[in-house]
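Continuing the series of single-chain predictions for the mutant panel. This is the parent chain; the variants come on the following pages.
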Amino acid sequence: MKRRTVLAAALMAWTSAWGQAAETKTTIEDQQDVAITAYNNGLALVRDTREIAMPEGELHLQFMDVAAMIRPETVSLRSLTEAGSVSILEQNYEYDLISPSKLMEKYVGKTVRLVNFSKELGFENIEAELLSINEGPIYRVGGQIFLGHPGNVVLPEVPDNLISKPTLVWNITNTKPVQRLEATYLTNGVSWQADYVVTLAKDDKQLDLAGWVTMNNQSGATFENAQLKLVAGEVNLVQLGGGRGGFVTAEVAQFAADAAMPQQEAFAEYHLYTMPRRTTIKQNQSKQLALLDAVNVACAKKYEYRGQLHFYSQQMPPMRDEHVGVFLEFENREANHLGIPLPAGVMRIYQEDSSGMLQFAGEDRTEHTPKDETITLRMGQAFDVIGDRVQTDYRVIANNVFEAEFEITLRNHKENDIVIDVVEPMPSDWTILQKTRDFVKKDSQTAVFTIPVKKDGEEKLTYRVRVTY
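Parent structure:
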């Protein structure tokens, strides 16, 4: 019993001390600096620095104007004025925001005022008890129960436990009258992606590559004059149950060749891009920022006629008038006017027509591409290049052994000579028994026949293969 009395007294003393603690509010007006590091997965790290005048001792600090999609378990606070001059006793995230339904919910069982309630009943401005709001408001007025009303509800005040915007709340002890504090937290709703414009020369041998970052902010906060960094790579995140979650088509953009471009550096197992200029990222805004500008990049257009794995274990009907795939390929090397890590994104290809106007020629999505690697973009299907595939023989040699023979015809109706790669994915163990053209074994399951086809010309390939499953 004595121990319970002591604990109760201690609790009362703590409660009294809490009630007497000074309260200090800080808003965006106190902000001295803000820095954003955005990741590919819709997550961003926010560093919000504010200079705040506040009393010494224990106080209740309300840190307002933070992102609505903040992850409160990631919040930290430190003093930049003097290390250790601020100690955190308790940390809370308040997000019970004011709304009509929330206000009504808080006043269930309490007295409200009904204005313009009913002239017919004889009271236009009267007090009423709000009994419930389930499926609509229910009031007790003068001993009678009313369901809804045609007028307005007037409340005497905003309840203490409702706030107008998401707020971080700390109970802290402070030893300096003016503090420069840095709050750091992760928030959802800030996403970015790389978008690229590829301008292909008429001869298909060179291209210009312009890239930009498309930012999309749905975090619930505006970041004014922010220092912006971008992390490209797949950062692992723990998937928590019950968490809160929160593309933009761009026209062709031209960037000045002498514009300041982001500085990139290796960071952990990712790449970090620091934007050269500060920028404001408004809530519900998409913004494009220059990422790179490369000119005279050597490239090659490639044509590919591709088979399928299942062609070799069954009889196949003739496949005629198939359009050949078109690809654009270039090296991400310094010697080729590139040689920088390229974040994943969509590359859109444009090429001039006979009048000199740029026309859209296809697009493809690329993964994160390190320097000194090859980028291959699928443009689409060639209108004037056709392939036929006919299975001329098929035999079952054993339960798991099959032989098939194919005749492939390639027709080029373009005004120039081209080279077509016939790419044949081979299942399991395979051996080409006969062939009319040489091939390259690209890997254990791919044979590639490279066939030049003159303009308005036709070429044939015949081969026989044995496949053992």
